[in-house]
Amino acid sequence: MNITLDSLRKMKAGGEKFASLTAYDAAFSHAVSTAGIEVILVGDSLGMVLQGRDSTLPVTIEDMVYHTRCAARGNQGALLMADLPFGSYSTPEQTLENSAALMRAGAQMVKVEGGRWLCKSVELLARNGIPTCVHLGLTPQSVNVFGGFKVQGRDEDAARTMIEDGVLLDQSGAAMLLLECVPSALAQQFTQSVSVPVIGIGAGPDTDGQVLVLHDMLGVTPGRRPRFVKDFMAGQDSIDGAIKAFGEAVRSGQFPAEEHQFSS
Ligand code: KIV
Fold first, then answer.
1. How far is Cα 197 from Cα 133, in angstroms, rounded to an integer?
2. Given ligand 1 and candidates 46, 49, 63, 83, which is best to mutate, with the most ligand atoms within 8 Å of its CB?
3. With a 6 A CB cut-off, is 44 part of the ligand 1 pocket?
4. Does residue 45 have its Cβ closer than 6 Å to ligand 1?
5. The ligand 1 atom nearest the CA atom of 135
6. pTM value?
7. What is the pLDDT of residues 64-102, one digit of tens each?
Protein backbone atom coordinates (compact mmCIF):
# COMPACT_ATOMS: atom_id res chain seq x y z
CA MET A 1 0.00 0.00 0.00
CA ASN A 2 1.28 3.48 -0.86
CA ILE A 3 1.48 5.81 2.13
CA THR A 4 0.47 9.38 1.36
CA LEU A 5 0.11 12.53 3.43
CA ASP A 6 -3.57 11.76 3.58
CA SER A 7 -2.79 8.38 5.20
CA LEU A 8 -0.77 10.16 7.90
CA ARG A 9 -3.48 12.80 8.48
CA LYS A 10 -6.04 9.99 8.92
CA MET A 11 -3.72 8.22 11.36
CA LYS A 12 -3.35 11.42 13.39
CA ALA A 13 -7.12 11.91 13.41
CA GLY A 14 -7.65 8.29 14.53
CA GLY A 15 -4.96 8.44 17.20
CA GLU A 16 -2.88 5.80 15.37
CA LYS A 17 0.91 6.21 15.66
CA PHE A 18 3.16 5.99 12.59
CA ALA A 19 6.83 5.11 12.26
CA SER A 20 9.68 6.60 10.29
CA LEU A 21 13.33 5.61 9.74
CA THR A 22 16.18 7.05 7.75
CA ALA A 23 17.42 5.26 4.64
CA TYR A 24 20.05 6.57 2.26
CA ASP A 25 20.20 3.80 -0.34
CA ALA A 26 18.05 1.32 -2.27
CA ALA A 27 18.78 -1.76 -0.12
CA PHE A 28 17.74 -0.10 3.14
CA SER A 29 14.79 1.83 1.70
CA HIS A 30 13.54 -1.55 0.39
CA ALA A 31 14.01 -3.15 3.83
CA VAL A 32 12.36 -0.25 5.68
CA SER A 33 9.36 0.04 3.36
CA THR A 34 8.68 -3.69 3.10
CA ALA A 35 8.73 -3.88 6.91
CA GLY A 36 5.74 -1.51 6.90
CA ILE A 37 7.45 1.67 8.12
CA GLU A 38 5.27 4.53 6.91
CA VAL A 39 7.88 7.27 6.24
CA ILE A 40 11.44 7.03 4.90
CA LEU A 41 13.67 10.00 5.66
CA VAL A 42 16.68 10.56 3.44
CA GLY A 43 18.24 12.62 6.22
CA ASP A 44 21.30 14.81 6.08
CA SER A 45 22.39 12.68 9.06
CA LEU A 46 24.05 10.76 6.22
CA GLY A 47 26.89 13.27 6.66
CA MET A 48 27.62 11.79 10.08
CA VAL A 49 26.47 8.20 9.51
CA LEU A 50 27.84 7.50 6.01
CA GLN A 51 30.49 10.18 5.53
CA GLY A 52 31.92 10.10 9.07
CA ARG A 53 31.69 13.87 9.61
CA ASP A 54 31.26 15.54 13.02
CA SER A 55 28.07 17.33 11.98
CA THR A 56 25.60 17.54 9.08
CA LEU A 57 27.01 20.89 7.87
CA PRO A 58 29.31 19.58 5.09
CA VAL A 59 26.46 17.75 3.29
CA THR A 60 25.66 19.25 -0.13
CA ILE A 61 22.51 19.34 -2.24
CA GLU A 62 24.33 17.08 -4.74
CA ASP A 63 24.86 14.49 -1.94
CA MET A 64 21.16 14.71 -1.05
CA VAL A 65 19.99 14.37 -4.67
CA TYR A 66 22.23 11.32 -5.17
CA HIS A 67 21.02 9.53 -2.01
CA THR A 68 17.37 10.48 -2.62
CA ARG A 69 17.60 8.94 -6.09
CA CYS A 70 19.12 5.73 -4.63
CA ALA A 71 16.55 5.48 -1.80
CA ALA A 72 13.63 6.18 -4.16
CA ARG A 73 14.62 3.21 -6.35
CA GLY A 74 14.29 0.73 -3.46
CA ASN A 75 11.19 2.23 -1.86
CA GLN A 76 8.11 -0.03 -1.85
CA GLY A 77 5.33 2.42 -0.96
CA ALA A 78 6.55 4.41 2.04
CA LEU A 79 6.28 8.21 1.89
CA LEU A 80 9.77 9.43 0.94
CA MET A 81 10.97 12.65 2.56
CA ALA A 82 14.37 14.22 1.85
CA ASP A 83 16.35 16.85 3.76
CA LEU A 84 17.46 20.16 2.33
CA PRO A 85 21.04 20.45 3.60
CA PHE A 86 22.75 23.34 5.40
CA GLY A 87 22.84 26.57 3.39
CA SER A 88 20.51 25.33 0.65
CA TYR A 89 17.30 27.16 1.73
CA SER A 90 18.29 30.68 2.78
CA THR A 91 15.74 32.38 0.51
CA PRO A 92 12.33 31.19 -0.75
CA GLU A 93 13.66 31.10 -4.34
CA GLN A 94 16.70 29.00 -3.40
CA THR A 95 14.43 26.73 -1.34
CA LEU A 96 12.13 26.17 -4.32
CA GLU A 97 14.99 25.41 -6.72
CA ASN A 98 16.68 22.91 -4.39
CA SER A 99 13.39 21.32 -3.30
CA ALA A 100 12.47 20.80 -6.96
CA ALA A 101 15.81 19.00 -7.45
CA LEU A 102 14.97 16.64 -4.55
CA MET A 103 11.44 16.05 -5.86
CA ARG A 104 12.84 15.26 -9.34
CA ALA A 105 15.15 12.75 -7.63
CA GLY A 106 12.12 10.94 -6.16
CA ALA A 107 11.27 12.72 -2.88
CA GLN A 108 7.57 13.20 -2.11
CA MET A 109 8.20 15.77 0.62
CA VAL A 110 11.15 17.92 1.69
CA LYS A 111 12.33 18.77 5.20
CA VAL A 112 13.90 22.03 6.38
CA GLU A 113 15.16 23.06 9.82
CA GLY A 114 14.00 26.26 11.52
CA GLY A 115 11.05 28.25 12.77
CA ARG A 116 8.69 31.01 11.70
CA TRP A 117 11.30 32.57 9.38
CA LEU A 118 10.50 29.67 7.00
CA CYS A 119 6.79 30.59 6.59
CA LYS A 120 7.28 32.33 3.22
CA SER A 121 9.30 29.41 1.84
CA VAL A 122 6.74 26.88 3.09
CA GLU A 123 3.97 28.88 1.38
CA LEU A 124 5.91 29.08 -1.89
CA LEU A 125 6.63 25.34 -1.87
CA ALA A 126 2.97 24.52 -1.14
CA ARG A 127 1.91 26.73 -4.08
CA ASN A 128 4.34 24.79 -6.27
CA GLY A 129 3.09 21.35 -5.24
CA ILE A 130 5.87 20.54 -2.78
CA PRO A 131 4.85 19.38 0.72
CA THR A 132 7.18 20.54 3.48
CA CYS A 133 8.06 19.14 6.87
CA VAL A 134 9.65 21.68 9.25
CA HIS A 135 12.10 20.37 11.87
CA LEU A 136 12.10 22.29 15.19
CA GLY A 137 13.74 21.89 18.59
CA LEU A 138 17.28 20.58 18.32
CA THR A 139 17.97 21.39 14.68
CA PRO A 140 21.38 19.78 14.01
CA GLN A 141 22.31 22.28 11.26
CA SER A 142 22.35 24.97 14.01
CA VAL A 143 24.65 23.02 16.34
CA ASN A 144 27.13 25.93 16.36
CA VAL A 145 24.43 28.33 17.54
CA PHE A 146 23.31 25.93 20.29
CA GLY A 147 26.90 25.16 21.35
CA GLY A 148 26.35 21.41 21.10
CA PHE A 149 23.63 18.79 20.65
CA LYS A 150 21.44 19.95 23.56
CA VAL A 151 17.81 19.51 24.57
CA GLN A 152 15.76 22.56 23.46
CA GLY A 153 12.61 24.25 24.82
CA ARG A 154 13.37 23.72 28.49
CA ASP A 155 12.59 27.29 29.55
CA GLU A 156 9.13 28.80 29.33
CA ASP A 157 9.94 31.42 26.67
CA ALA A 158 11.63 28.94 24.35
CA ALA A 159 8.74 26.49 24.79
CA ARG A 160 6.13 29.19 24.01
CA THR A 161 8.07 30.36 20.94
CA MET A 162 8.33 26.80 19.64
CA ILE A 163 4.57 26.27 19.87
CA GLU A 164 3.88 29.65 18.24
CA ASP A 165 6.32 28.74 15.43
CA GLY A 166 4.51 25.45 14.91
CA VAL A 167 1.12 27.15 14.67
CA LEU A 168 2.43 29.78 12.20
CA LEU A 169 4.10 27.12 10.02
CA ASP A 170 0.91 25.04 10.08
CA GLN A 171 -1.08 28.12 8.96
CA SER A 172 1.49 28.75 6.20
CA GLY A 173 0.84 25.31 4.71
CA ALA A 174 3.48 23.04 6.27
CA ALA A 175 2.39 19.43 5.70
CA MET A 176 4.18 17.97 8.70
CA LEU A 177 6.32 19.10 11.64
CA LEU A 178 9.19 17.31 13.37
CA LEU A 179 10.41 17.86 16.92
CA GLU A 180 13.86 16.75 18.03
CA CYS A 181 15.12 16.56 21.64
CA VAL A 182 12.50 18.53 23.54
CA PRO A 183 10.79 17.75 26.86
CA SER A 184 7.91 15.29 26.47
CA ALA A 185 5.36 17.69 28.03
CA LEU A 186 6.24 20.38 25.48
CA ALA A 187 5.97 17.90 22.60
CA GLN A 188 2.54 16.83 23.81
CA GLN A 189 1.28 20.43 23.97
CA PHE A 190 2.86 21.23 20.59
CA THR A 191 1.24 18.18 18.92
CA GLN A 192 -2.19 19.16 20.27
CA SER A 193 -1.75 22.79 19.09
CA VAL A 194 -1.24 22.05 15.37
CA SER A 195 -3.48 20.40 12.78
CA VAL A 196 -0.75 18.53 10.86
CA PRO A 197 1.00 15.28 11.86
CA VAL A 198 4.02 15.74 14.16
CA ILE A 199 6.97 13.30 14.18
CA GLY A 200 9.23 13.15 17.21
CA ILE A 201 12.76 12.03 17.96
CA GLY A 202 13.71 12.37 21.61
CA ALA A 203 10.37 14.15 22.09
CA GLY A 204 8.46 11.62 24.16
CA PRO A 205 5.50 9.34 23.42
CA ASP A 206 2.80 11.89 22.52
CA THR A 207 3.82 13.00 19.03
CA ASP A 208 1.85 11.42 16.17
CA GLY A 209 4.86 9.53 14.83
CA GLN A 210 8.38 8.52 15.85
CA VAL A 211 11.55 8.69 13.79
CA LEU A 212 15.02 7.27 14.41
CA VAL A 213 18.25 7.14 12.44
CA LEU A 214 18.35 3.57 11.11
CA HIS A 215 22.02 2.97 11.93
CA ASP A 216 21.44 4.17 15.53
CA MET A 217 18.57 1.74 16.15
CA LEU A 218 20.55 -1.09 14.56
CA GLY A 219 23.37 -0.32 17.00
CA VAL A 220 26.00 0.21 14.28
CA THR A 221 26.69 3.92 14.82
CA PRO A 222 30.16 4.34 16.36
CA GLY A 223 30.38 6.13 19.70
CA ARG A 224 27.87 6.69 22.49
CA ARG A 225 24.21 5.97 21.75
CA PRO A 226 21.98 9.05 22.36
CA ARG A 227 19.55 8.68 25.29
CA PHE A 228 16.47 8.68 23.01
CA VAL A 229 17.67 5.72 20.90
CA LYS A 230 16.84 2.09 21.61
CA ASP A 231 18.93 -0.71 20.11
CA PHE A 232 16.24 -2.70 18.27
CA MET A 233 18.79 -5.30 17.07
CA ALA A 234 19.02 -6.61 20.63
CA GLY A 235 17.00 -9.82 20.78
CA GLN A 236 16.54 -9.97 16.98
CA ASP A 237 18.42 -12.16 14.53
CA SER A 238 17.94 -10.02 11.42
CA ILE A 239 17.78 -6.40 10.30
CA ASP A 240 14.24 -7.02 9.01
CA GLY A 241 13.29 -8.27 12.49
CA ALA A 242 14.74 -5.17 14.15
CA ILE A 243 12.92 -2.81 11.76
CA LYS A 244 9.61 -4.65 12.29
CA ALA A 245 10.15 -4.57 16.08
CA PHE A 246 10.60 -0.78 15.89
CA GLY A 247 7.37 -0.36 13.88
CA GLU A 248 5.44 -2.51 16.35
CA ALA A 249 6.90 -0.75 19.39
CA VAL A 250 5.87 2.64 17.95
CA ARG A 251 2.35 1.50 17.03
CA SER A 252 1.76 -0.11 20.43
CA GLY A 253 3.14 2.92 22.31
CA GLN A 254 5.95 0.86 23.89
CA PHE A 255 8.57 3.10 22.31
CA PRO A 256 9.68 5.61 23.46
CA ALA A 257 9.78 4.43 27.08
CA GLU A 258 10.57 6.63 30.09
CA GLU A 259 14.33 6.15 29.69
CA HIS A 260 14.28 7.56 26.13
CA GLN A 261 12.61 10.84 27.14
CA PHE A 262 13.61 14.28 28.43
CA SER A 263 11.87 16.30 31.11
CA SER A 264 11.60 20.11 31.46
O1 KIV B 1 18.83 13.91 9.21
C2 KIV B 1 18.14 13.18 9.93
O3 KIV B 1 18.31 11.96 9.98
C4 KIV B 1 17.13 13.81 10.76
C5 KIV B 1 16.56 12.99 11.88
C6 KIV B 1 17.47 13.09 13.05
C7 KIV B 1 15.19 13.41 12.23
O8 KIV B 1 16.79 14.94 10.57
1. 9
2. 83
3. yes
4. yes
5. 8
6. 0.98
7. 999 999 999 999 999 999 999 999 999 999 999 999 999
